[in-house]
Specification:
Layout (H helix, E strand, L loop, with lengths): L1 H29 L2 E6 L13 H6 L9 H13 L24 H5 L32 E4 L16 H7 L25 E6 L8 E5 L7 E7 L5 E5 L1 H4 L4 E5 L10 H5 L3 E5 L11 E7 L8 H4 L7 E7 L4 E2 L4 E3 L3 E8 L5 H4 L10 H33 L5 H4 L9 H9 L12 H4 L3 H4 L6 H19 L14 E2 L13 E4 L6 E12 L2 E3 L5 H9 L8 H22 L15 H8 L5 H14 L4 E3 L11 E3 L3 H12 L4 E4 L4 E5 L2 E11 L7 E7 L5 E7 L1 H5 L8 H16 L3 E10 L1 H15 L5 H10 L6 E12 L3 H10 L3 E5 L4 H8 L10 E3 L14 E5 L4 H19 L17 E6 H7 L5 H9 L3 E5 L3 H14 L4 E5 L5 H6 L2 E5 L6 H5 L2 E3 L4 H38 L13 H11 L1 H10 L5 H6 L5 H4 L6 H28 L13 H23 L2
Parallel strand pairs: 15-27, 15-32, 27-31, 29-30, 30-31, 32-33, 33-34
Antiparallel strand pairs: 1-3, 1-4, 2-8, 4-13, 5-11, 5-13, 6-7, 6-12, 8-9, 9-10, 14-34, 16-17, 16-26, 18-19, 20-21, 21-22, 22-23, 23-24, 24-25, 25-26, 28-29
Helix pairs in contact: 10-12, 15-33, 15-35, 17-18, 18-19, 19-20, 23-24, 25-33, 27-29, 33-35, 33-38, 33-39, 38-39
Length: about 1150
């Protein structure tokens, strides 16, 4: 009983500490600062939303300021941070200025302007996402409407003087212009002002103010921003793992809002869809009463004129929504409307409950313990029955030597007492002597309660060894592998499926412009990892050593830059970041007579113009010509940076101009339209007016998409040469894009622009209508060239993945990237069809998709279409793989060739439907690699759950961002990488370390060791307990089955505590069948863990029967020695006492148990 109580107490304390730490982190984030509009009526919130008990006790009355909010405001007033000045209609990088500090009194008395509100960047102080302590509901209809607050309203006069000073933030200067949702003819109280509050205090319908670098506290619709066009930028790494900036746009009807008074004069309804976890979809409608365009002049002009208003609507999409957990970047300020809070936000819907994980062996041990308990029960029942039988006999020796020794005169009761010691609480105390000999007490050691304590000690030691492994030490982060869950180390040796994120987990998320093709001429001398890998597998050694290659590239780079410097002046060159090393590029640009020169100028000019990148000068005073680029995609930033270093820098962008330089000469383009990239279009375009006044469309995208839209009279030789170059780039593991252009006439552009405006204002099927209109202008293109980027892998990723494959582990990639991006990371495969397999060409990046694999791409728009595609893929799989082959010596079934499946998020959503789920599971589990693209955090977790539950397989998830937390918690083992995307994944993981490559040693060495050690420890523990207990059972045949102890009670207490505990603990903590180098050299040894061959029920029963046999030996050999041999010792004393005999059996059992453990220790 005491060991059991100890286990329960320790477990409760451990869980309590973990829950407390988690609660502290949640409370810190929920108490982060936010700015909302105060002294203003939010009609979506009841006047008194308190629960009944708070109303009864008079707590938290409406209008009172909580202590948390009061402390926040007092703290900020004491700090007296510098004033930040904002201006609308100017670039964000020039919109912030820091003034001198002022005291609290001066701060309160400053001019009333929006620019005076201070930004507290609480998002930088806390990790995300938390688990909210309060769950706030959401409503489908969100209304903002203002009404005068009557004197009887409980909010009137709710603040005393001190509270008013704490909550006071100066208001903004009103615009005074009616338009959109604004109507300055309406009468309002004029009391609204910005005030500081806490995240957890925000409610649906609140108007909030966000500043640059603020974390977004709820799902918010953008009403207005500091940008004249209503643009703002957010970093979404907590949602999709990408560190690139995403643009969002304010609603047109609300874009004029820029002050508290504007909000008071606004009247509109946001008709929102219910909350759902899809991160890439949101649909709502803004409804308001607006005047005709001709009458929208000013409040003074329209007030009292009686101009009729018309019901108007504007669609609200995901591009107008800021999601909780994202961070505002490169934007002075944002005014937004809260639509979802708490558990209804998308990031919370994509999260999961924190699980309580138990190892597979621990679960299997429950069966073994139950079997032992049944054995114990059968021993006790048989003993009680036989004891009762002996008691019924008469004329036996007990009539003379055991007079009045029975607890009662009833045979059945005496048998029950012998069986069940619990009756000690209901019978006279003087019966305790007999009860202490009861069978349940005598044989209780067969149920190894102490095993759980020993296992906890062993796993603690194993966790320490893992944390001290220098091979998993990552110097840049100065950290080793950190075990956070200590009781599942043996599961590391049984992993069959690994689910991994891509960006930041397999790759460094660093793009390098390696090669390009212009007018059929190739530029770039770099040698990629994929090229080396392909050559190595083909037995070729025609590439120089990496160190030798680096020296060669360094010399060529210096020659190229020197040649370019003599040709033109590039003030924005960042020589240390140049990745395109091409001496022939410098020669062609320098030779004015070379016809290739003009083609190069047109190519790099297109790269400098066709993008959505933002330019930034981090140090405008010290380094005025240093330009950094922030982009939605790292690909775009790499392309624009390459153009900058080649002499074609993108300098700045505004609403009316795009400024670039062409070999030192400035050029200005007028932006007309941007046709954004999406997964359906697989391309992006810009329409600009060049310095010559011509309208040009630049388009870049996948080669298949661009080639399908080329002009009918395009030069076939150029098409063939560019296609050949892109194929070579793909074989080198590079990500390719095709660059093209065409000229538009004024009439064509005007007609198309009108159609585009109509499609953009559609309230239904808006995206489809825009795509149809875009098709009308993206045609008759001419090729300028092709680019080739390398997404740098983390060190050792290809070798790690190959080793894991050899170990029999299957890898699934769950990423938010596009399908094409994910494929190019895994391989250079050229996609030939949408459904059926593609032929993989030699070479690949990280061994995810091998050269001999068949790749099947699944893309479906509906449930039926998804079912047909999955069934077709299964049929194709049967054709490719053929009948199953016999397993080889390593235990892995041999195949004709490997297969891989690539599926996008929309198709995966259908594939996870209960009607298709078994088919998709069958398809995925027969493939060596599965790549799921554009998946949300919730889909990641559902995919892991599908395999874990559907195959009853051991799973491991690894990621580095907050978007990976759900799948990390769902898997049997969760691993988090400490990286650029924060530490939320590492905080939620069972094991945290620095690089993906460390996973091989964690699994193949520490995991395998832990699994074998724990499995052997369990078996040996049951063995030693059976020897001890069964030896006492044999003694029952010689004492009328009265449950008399064979051993002296000290032996019983110390058997598991002292005499036999240390050997099994040493076995479980230090045993090694082979060393670490051998484990990594022969990864096929890991297959035994996947198949669970080290800990089976057959092995359990073998050890049990072995212990049963050994118990016969340790009992009957001493018994025969005592009964048949000499009855005196060497000193002449007799040996006929129970203590002597019991001690002999006990010592024999102890020696046998420890010797057996020693023989099993390697």
């Amino acid at each position: 009983m005491l060991p059991l109580l100890f286990i329960l107490t320790v477990t409760a304390l451990k869980d309590g500490v973990e829950d407390y730490r988690r609660g502290v982190v949640d409370e810190e984030v929920n108490n982060s600062a936010a700015t909302k509009l105060g002294d203003w009526r939010n009609v979506n919130v009841p006047d008194d939303s308190r629960p009944f008990w708070q109303k009864l006790l008079g707590l938290n009355r409406p209008g009172t300021i909580s202590r948390g909010v009061r402390r926040l405001r007092e703290k900020e007033l004491e700090e007296g941070a510098g004033k930040i000045v904002l201006t609308k209609n100017v670039a964000d990088d020039a919109s912030e200025k820091t003034g001198p500090k002022e005291d609290a009194h001066t701060f309160v008395q400053r001019a009333r302007s929006l620019e005076d509100i201070q930004s507290v960047h609480s998002g930088e102080m806390h990790e995300y996402p938390p688990i909210p302590t309060d769950v706030l509901g959401s409503r489908a209809n969100l209304t903002i409407d203002q009404a005068l607050i009557s004197p009887d309203d409980p909010r009137a006069g709710r603040l005393n003087q001190s509270a008013a000073e704490l909550s006071y933030y100066p208001s903004s200067t009103r615009t005074g212009a009616s338009g959109g949702v604004l109507d300055w003819s309406r009468q309002t109280p004029g009391t609204a002002k910005w005030e500081r509050t806490l995240w957890k205090k925000l409610e649906i319908g609140d108007v909030v103010l966000l500043r640059d670098n603020d974390q977004i506290p709820a799902d918010i619709v953008v009403l207005s921003t500091s940008d004249a066009d209503g643009l703002c930028y957010v970093e979404t790494k907590n949602l999709d793992g990408e560190t690139n900036l995403k643009p969002r746009k304010s609603l047109k009807a609300t874009s004029m809002i820029s002050s508290e008074e504007d909000v008071e004069h606004a009247s509109f309804i946001v008709d929102s869809e219910p909350p759902h976890p899809n991160l890439y979809l949101y649909n709502a409608v803004l409804r308001y009463q607006g005047r005709p365009d001709s009458d929208e002049v000013s409040g003074e002009a329209t007030q009292g004129t009686g101009v009729p208003k018309e019901a108007q609507t504007e669609p609200v999409t995901i591009n107008n929504l800021l999601l909780r957990g994202c961070t505002v970047r490169n934007t002075g300020w944002i005014i937004g409307l809260v639509v979802f809070t708490g558990a209804d936000t998308k990031i919370m819907l994509n999260g999961g409950d924190t699980p309580s994980k138990r190892s597979k062996i621990e679960k299997e041990t429950n069966f073994n313990v139950i079997m032992n308990f049944l054995i114990l029960l059968s021993m006790c029942v048989s003993t009680a029955i036989v004891s009762g039988y002996f008691e019924t006999l008469t004329n036996t020796s007990s009539d003379f030597y055991e007079t009045n020794s029975q607890p009662s005169k009833y045979v059945v009761l005496n048998s029950l007492i012998t069986f069940w010691y619990v009756l000690i609480t209901t019978i006279p105390v003087f019966w305790a002597d007999w009860l202490s000999s009861s069978c349940l007490i005598a044989f209780q050691n067969i149920v190894p309660i102490s095993l759980y304590i020993s296992i906890e000690i062993v796993k603690t030691i194993q966790a320490y060894f893992i944390s001290q492994d220098v091979d998993m030490w990552y110097q840049p982060y100065d950290t080793a592998c950190v075990p956070k869950t200590w009781n599942i180390s043996d599961d590391l040796g049984q992993i069959e499926y690994i689910f991994s994120d891509k960006t930041g987990t397999l790759t460094q998320n660093i793009m390098e412009f390696q090669k390009c093709s212009v007018n059929g001429v190739t530029y770039g001398e770099g040698i990629t990892e994929a090229m080396r890998g392909a050559a190595k597998r083909e037995g070729r050694d025609d590439y120089p050593d990496p160190q030798e290659q680096a020296e060669q590239l360094k010399e060529m780079k210096a020659t190229m830059l020197e040649k370019m410097a003599k040709t033109f002046k590039n003030r924005y060159l960042q020589a240390e970041r140049v990745t395109l090393v091409a001496p022939n590029l410098a020669e062609h640009l320098a030779d004015k007579t070379n016809p290739q020169r003009q083609h190069l100028i047109q190519f790099f000019r297109a790269l400098a113009v066709c993008h959505t990148v933002l330019s930034d000068r981090p140090e405008p005073r010290d380094q005025p010509y240093r330009l950094d680029y922030k982009a939605e995609s790292p690909d775009e930033a790499a392309l624009v940076a390459a153009a900058r270093d080649a002499g074609f820098p993108f300098v700045a962008k505004s609403n009316t101009s795009i400024d670039i330089e062409v070999m030192g000469q400035p050029e200005r383009y007028i932006p007309l339209r941007v046709l954004e990239f999406n997964s359906t279009r697989k391309r992006m375009s810009v329409i600009v007016r060049n310095p010559e006044g011509k309208i040009v469309l630049y388009c870049k995208g996948a080669d298949s998409v661009i080639y399908a839209r080329l002009a009918s009279d395009h030069d076939p030789a150029l098409k063939e040469a560019t296609a050949r170059d892109m194929e070579a780039f793909a074989n080198a593991g590079l990500r390719t894009l095709c660059i093209s252009y065409r000229y538009l006439s004024e009439e064509e552009y005007l007609n198309w622009s009108r159609q585009h405006d109509v499609a953009s204002s559609a309230t239904e099927n808006r995206e489809e209508e825009i795509d149809k209109v875009n098709e009308k202008v993206e045609h008759s293109l001419n090729i300028l060239g092709a680019t080739a980027l390398e997404d740098k892998l983390q060190e050792g990723v290809p070798d790690a993945i190959e080793t894991l494959h050899q170990a029999g582990i299957k890898l699934w990639i769950l990423t938010g990237d596009k399908v094409q991006t994910a494929i190019e990371i895994g391989t250079n495969a050229r996609i030939l069809t949408v459904l059926t397999h593609t032929h993989c060409l030699p070479g690949f990046s990280c061994n995810l998709l091998k050269s001999d694999m068949e790749i099947m791409i699944l893309a479906a728009d509906s449930l039926d279409d998804a079912r047909n595609k999955v069934e077709a893929a299964l049929n194709k799989l049967a054709t490719i793989l053929g009948p199953p082959q016999k397993s080889n010596k390593s235990g892995i079934a041999s195949r004709k060739k490997g297969c891989a499946v690539v599926i996008d998020g929309d198709t995966l959503r259908h594939a996870l439907d209960p009607s298709i789920k078994p088919l998709f599971l069958s398809l995925g589990t027969q493939c060596d690699t599965v790549v799921c693209c554009r998946v949300s955090p919730a889909q990641k977790a559902l995919t892991v759950k599908l395999v874990k539950d559907g195959c009853n397989a051991m799973t491991l998830s690894i990621g580095d961002g907050a978007n990976d937390v759900a799948m990390i918690q769902e898997a049997n083992i969760g691993c988090g990488l400490l990286g650029l995307e924060g530490s939320q994944a590492a905080m939620s993981a069972d094991y945290a370390f620095g690089q993906f490559r460390f996973l091989t040693k964690l699994l193949l060495v520490h995991g395998r060791w832990s699994y074998i050690r724990v499995a052997d420890m369990h078996s040996n523990f049951f063995y030693k307990n059976v020897i001890w207990t069964c030896a006492m059972f044999w003694f029952l045949f010689f004492n009328s089955f009265d449950a008399t102890y064979l051993y002296e009670y000290t032996f019983i207490l110390g058997y598991n505590l002292f005499f036999t505990s240390l050997p099994v603990i040493v076995l479980g903590a230090f045993d090694q069948d082979i060393n670490a180098k051998a484990s990594l050299a022969y990864p096929q040894l890991y297959v035994r863990g996947i198949k669970g061959l080290e800990y089976t029920r057959t092995k359990f029963w073998m050890y049990m029967f072995d212990g049963f046999y050994q118990s016969v030996i340790v009992f009957f050999i001493p018994y025969l020695s005592f009964s048949r041999g000499a009855s005196v010792s060497w000193s002449g004393k007799t040996l006929d006492s129970l203590a002597d005999f019991g001690t002999t059996v006990a010592i024999a059992a102890i020696f046998s148990a420890n010797l057996f453990v020693g023989l099993n220790t390697r």
